[in-house]
Design brief:
This protein has about 220 residues and is mainly beta. The chain is built from two helices and 14 strands. Helix content is about 10%, strand content about 55%.
């Protein structure tokens, strides 16, 4: 019977794909697993304060933390974010989806919420350095110091931005078939918390587990079975 069940599992395994969720609430005091990248070399700053990821960017270009793999296709990323201080002309909470390239030549669908010269609101930019392939805006109220819930979803060539669980904007763009994920601050001090990335290629992982935390104990027990 055991052999039958094992054979069945082996047969089904390639067919069934479970979406994984990568979570980080920064409660362990670090952003291990993420890579800090600034668009320009004069940099920005990233710290973890009171269990939140805080990205500070003193100029208009973005500074961000990147995670994931270049072959990630359909996924969503959601998080709580607060813009604490407006510094630049562009002061934004932002994220990059289907990110490829190095820090100086990024290409991605870039979604943001906050202040730009055009006004206050939600934006999606399809960006292939140095070209803006698409740039769409929706005016929306925005408040400094207020926490909002942002969600970016990519499904095939469709990119959607949700703000506080309402669909704010969407675009179709065929030029970014897959890529990593980035959290950004633009000309602002922004804190991020409760990040969850879900997708078929995304591993099931909680990044704030301390070395001697629960998961390590479970893993140790599994290995002794
Ligand atoms: Ca961590």
């Amino acid at each position: 019977m055991k052999i039958t069940m094992v054979s069945l599992c082996m047969l089904l395994f390639p067919v069934l794909v479970w979406a994984g969720t990568l979570r980080d609430d920064f409660s362990d005091g670090n952003f291990d697993g993420w890579t800090l990248i600034s668009f320009v070399e004069d940099g920005g700053q990233c710290t973890v304060e009171k269990g939140k990821l805080v990205i500070t960017r003193f100029s208009d270009w973005s500074c961000g933390c990147v995670i994931g793999e270049e072959d990630w296709k359909d996924y969503s990323i959601e998080f709580d974010a607060t813009l604490h201080q407006k510094i630049g002309t562009w002061s934004l909470i932002a994220m990059g989806l289907h990110l490829k390239g190095n820090a100086q030549q990024w290409r991605n669908a870039w979604m943001s919420y906050g202040f730009r010269p055009e006004g206050i609101g939600a934006y999606i930019v399809a960006y292939d350095h140095p070209n803006f392939l698409q740039d769409v805006m929706k005016p929306m109220p925005f408040e400094i110091g207020k926490t909002c819930h942002l969600k970016g979803v990519v499904s095939g060539n469709k990119y959607q931005l949700y703000i506080d669980n309402e669909l704010a904007l969407q675009i179709q763009e065929n030029r970014f078939p897959s890529g990593k994920v980035r959290l950004d601050a633009n000309g602002a001090v922004v804190s991020f918390d409760n990040v969850a990335i879900t997708g078929d290629e995304v591993p099931d992982k909680y990044l704030s587990v301390k070395p001697r935390g629960k998961l390590s104990i479970v893993w140790a027990r599994l290995k002794t079975l």
